């Protein structure tokens, strides 16, 4: 069934619905306070069959107390990269009423060093977050064997 509204019978437009649903009680949400905890949480929910195969970009959505509201997969790409559209990132953050986010993606090669594109994208998302009052706390690059934290390395 098509979800369409009629305005005075003249125009037909799609109705937009923003929904965030959780089955996790607030008291049961994990709290993250450092990159090691972020990595452990991400590693536990990353598809092991993809971490060394294709690049994926995910975000952790956090409330003001740094409790995890959820993990959202932004994109899955190929061996050499994936698209992380800031509009998709912030639509997920706004939908979940997140106060802050942590960016993450994997490097299938196992090389944890951020590329220039990784650094530029992180800066772009930080700037967008500043406009929306959504803090970008870290960007964690993960592999099957470890992680790299932009915050730990002074890049955020």
Descriptive terms for the model:
3 helices, globular, 24% helix, 156 residues, 5-stranded mixed β-sheet
Account of the 3D structure:
The chain starts with a strand and ends in a 7-residue tail after the last strand. The chain has helices spanning 35-45, 86-95, 116-132, and strands at 4-7, 11-14, 56-62, 68-76, 100-106, 135-142, 147-149. The chain has 3 helices and 7 strands. Helix content is 24%, strand content 27%. With 156 residues, it is an alpha+beta fold. A hairpin with a 3-residue loop joins strand 1 and strand 2 (11-14). The chain has a 5-stranded mixed sheet with strand order 4-3-5-6-7, sandwiched between helices. It is globular, with a radius of gyration of 17 Å.
Quick overview of this protein structure:
The protein has helices at 35-45, 86-95, 116-132, and strands at residues 4-7, 11-14, 56-62, 68-76, 100-106, 135-142, 147-149. It has 156 residues and is α+β, with helices and mostly antiparallel strands.
What's the overall average pLDDT, rounded?
A: 89
Strand neighbour order, sheet with most strands: 4-3-5-6-7
Q: What is the share of helical residues?
A: 10-25%
The shape is globular
Regions with little confidence, pLDDT below 50 for 5+ residues: none
Strand residues, percent: 25-35%
State the secondary-structure class. Answer: alpha+beta
Give the end-to-end Cα distance, rounded to a whole number of Å: 46 Å
Instruction: Please trace the helix and strand order, writing H or E for each element.
Output: EEHEEHEHEE
Largest sheet: 5 strands, mixed
Estimated radius of gyration: 17 Å
Discrete helix count: 3
Please count the beta strands (DSSP E, at least 2 residues each).
7
């Amino acid at each position: 069934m098509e979800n369409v509204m009629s305005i005075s019978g003249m125009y037909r437009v799609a109705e937009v619905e923003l929904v965030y649903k959780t089955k996790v009680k607030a008291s049961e949400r994990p709290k993250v306070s450092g990159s090691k905890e972020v990595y452990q949480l991400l590693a536990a929910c990353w598809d092991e069959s993809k971490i060394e195969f294709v690049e994926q970009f995910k975000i952790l959505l956090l409330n003001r107390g740094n409790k995890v509201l959820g993990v959202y997969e932004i994109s899955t790409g190929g061996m050499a990269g994936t698209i992380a559209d800031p509009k998709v990132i912030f639509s997920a953050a706004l939908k979940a009423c997140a106060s802050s986010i942590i960016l993450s993606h994997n490097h299938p090669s196992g090389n944890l060093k951020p590329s220039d594109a990784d650094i530029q994208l992180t800066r772009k998302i930080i700037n967008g977050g500043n406009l929306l009052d959504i803090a970008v706390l870290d960007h964690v690059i993960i592999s099957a064997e470890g992680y790299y934290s932009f915050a730990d390395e002074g890049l955020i």
